[in-house]
Amino acid sequence: MQDNKSDRQIKRGLILEGGAMRGMFTSGILDVFLEKGISFDGAVGVSAGATFGCNFKSRQAGRAIRYNKRFSHDWRYCSVRSLILTGDLYGASFCYDEIPNKLDPFDYESYRANPMEFYCVASDCNTGKPVYKKLESCDKDELTWMRASASMPLASGIVKIDGYSLLDGGMTDSVPLRFFEGLGYNRNVVILTQPRDFRKEASSLMWLMKLALAKYPEAVNAMRRRPEVYNEEVADVFAKADRGELLVICPERSLGISRTEKDTGELQRVYDEGRRVAAARLDEVRTFLEEQEQ
Fold first, then answer.
1. Phi, psi of 12 (to 5 degrees)
2. Of 2, 76, 158, 191, which residue is least crowded by CB atoms under 10 Å?
3. Alpha-helix residue ranges (DSSP H) falling in the chain
4. 105, 138, 147, 226, 231 from 92: Cα distances, Å
5. Residue 191, by phi and psi: left (phi above 0), alpha (psi -120 to 50) or beta?
6. Phi, psi of 132, deg, nearest 5
7. How far apart are CA 272 and CA 275, in angstroms?
8. pLDDT of residue 115
9. Is 204 exposed, middle or buried, given 0-12, 13-18 or 19+ CB atoms closer than 10 A?
């Protein structure tokens, strides 16, 4: 029987790389998408891609840049003091309770009402494999999964939930395009926070990773393999983009921002760059998402 591609359901997916405060670039793009009515059937975020990207599902344009600037110098948000006192550079209670529930409320109702699926990626320290979690409500347990997705090794404690011991999703699947393709998403926009010519190199802190994760050898192996896995994933993304199978948005050059940047001017600069890039490519994005299968 001949396969009629025109009958195939189009599922529009959004894939969000992490990168800590490089995520301000992604936030700028997503806010433009919100303001201009660009929508997707599903999104998957890794680390900062999840913690900032969830505001796209809750339709809260401007929230990520707002609270990051407001609390960038608050020791409870991100500091060595927090790391010493709580075991997390980014304070878990402050970031995942105080801010969303009291200081800059997250719109849980809008999040749940939005039919767009939203997933985050974390890394299983026992297996060294990625774990994908669908976040339907962003309740307390799901926020814990989101925290796990953004828990950078050496800067965070291991997050234990649902029988897993978890750390940052970027350790095992920084750009989960293949995961989304496996779910049937076939019209994908990938947002990266590094330029096209970036290549990840081995970490100079592997010796410290071995010590910190001595009880989790598979997690250490995942970190050792990370540059190879990441570079292969990004090569796959751009190969498919060059064939017109997906659309990729990334910085034109290195964003030049620290992963733990506190300077509000720098946060705003990178956010504004995301907005600029999104505005320049808005027509291209619309055309890509609205195209029908041939």
1. -95, 120
2. 2
3. 23-35, 48-57, 63-71, 80-86, 92-93, 108-113, 140-149, 177-182, 206-212, 217-242, 264-280, 282-290
4. 16, 15, 7, 25, 30
5. beta
6. -110, 130
7. 5
8. 97
9. exposed
pLDDT band at 7 (very low <50, low <70, confident <90, very high): low
d(CA 57, CA 139): 14
If phi > 0 it is left, if psi is from -120 to 50 it is alpha, else beta; for residue 87 that is left
Q: How many CB atoms lie within 10 A of CB 102?
A: 8
What is the number of other CB atoms lying within 10 angstroms of the CB of residue 261? Answer: 21
Identify any residues that bridge with 129 across adjacent strands, giving them in sequence order: 124
Single-letter code of the amino acid located at 49: G
The residue-averaged pLDDT of 220-237 equals 97
Mean pLDDT calculated for residue range 128-134: 98
Look up the pTM and report it.
0.94
pLDDT at site 294: 43
Which tokens belong to 102?
């009291």
What confidence tens digit (pLDDT) does each residue in 280-292 have? Answer: 999 999 999 987 5
Query: How many other C-beta atoms are found inside a 10 Å radius of the C-beta of residue 6?
Result: 8
CB within 8 Å of 209: residues ≥ 6 apart: 153, 154, 203, 220, 223
Handedness of CA 154, 44, 97, 33 (dihedral sign): positive
Q: How confident is the model at residue 191 (pLDDT cuts 50, 70, 90)?
A: very high
Beta bridge partners of 249: 191
First to last CA, the chain: 18
**d(C-alpha 141, C-alpha 83), whole Å:** 22
Is residue 1 pLDDT above 50, yes or no?
A: no
pLDDT for res 292 = 54
Inter-helix orientation angle 264-280/282-290, to 10°: 50
8 Å CB contact between 95 and 147: yes
